[in-house]
Design brief:
single chain, alpha/beta, six-stranded mixed β-sheet, 13 strands
């Protein structure tokens, strides 16, 4: 029997979730992203992306469109209330880094990532209006249970906020049955003896 192509489920279509999904797609693994809101809006405030973060976005091939929607600070300056310079230091390329520092609105960054996801992975792999209820796993598969329907893959990755629903629902499972959630937010099998939820048994493989 032919080997099944691995598939990953990412929870959350924010910056972390979309970057994760694009990286997974880049290595040739199938990926689907689930998001609880019915429409992704460019919300947030201005953020600074330091060169080591920009390096990762450049590796994903989105530096050019991101530069069009951001500014590149060349220095950080502290001044007194009278406008007299107290301290300054160069930033980004001016500081000798191969990549710039970028100041960008969080929503603009999310839109750039979303455009890349639609173009590369496909709109059909972004599922909006799906609220995560829990995550189950056995020795082979991980199952994300949503209010609309369950879905299965080899891995479920939590990208659904600082306090992730994915991690919190997994931690509330009975001892010995919960999926393991590592520091990267990935829900994996907790062992061959872990029973699968009946909600996952109807998922087509």
């Amino acid at each position: 029997m032919a080997a099944r192509t691995p598939r990953v489920i990412v929870i959350g279509a924010g910056i972390g979730g979309l970057v994760t999904a694009l990286s997974i797609h880049e290595i040739g693994t199938r990926v689907d992203v689930y998001e609880r809101v019915r429409r992704v809006e460019p919300l947030g405030v201005g953020i600074n992306l330091l060169p080591h973060a920009v390096r990762e976005l450049d590796a994903l091939g989105i530096l050019a469109p991101l530069r069009q929607r951001s500014v590149e600070p060349t220095s950080l300056v502290y001044c007194s209330r009278h406008g007299r310079e107290i301290w300054s230091e160069p930033r980004g390329i001016a500081a000798g880094y191969p990549w710039p520092q970028l100041s960008v609105h969080r929503g603009a960054l999310q839109e750039v990532l979303l455009d890349a996801f639609h173009e590369r992975v496909g709109r059909e792999h972004l599922h909006l209006g799906h609220r995560l209820l829990t995550v189950d796993a056995d020795a082979e598969r991980a199952c994300a249970v949503f209010d609309a329907r369950p879905d299965e893959g080899e891995l479920v990755v939590a990208g659904d906020a600082v306090v992730a629903v994915t991690a919190s629902t997994a931690s509330r499972a009975p001892s010995g049955t919960r999926p393991r959630v590592d520091r990267a937010g990935a829900a994996r099998s907790s062992g061959a003896g872990s029973p699968r939820s009946s909600r996952c048994s109807t998922v087509a493989r």
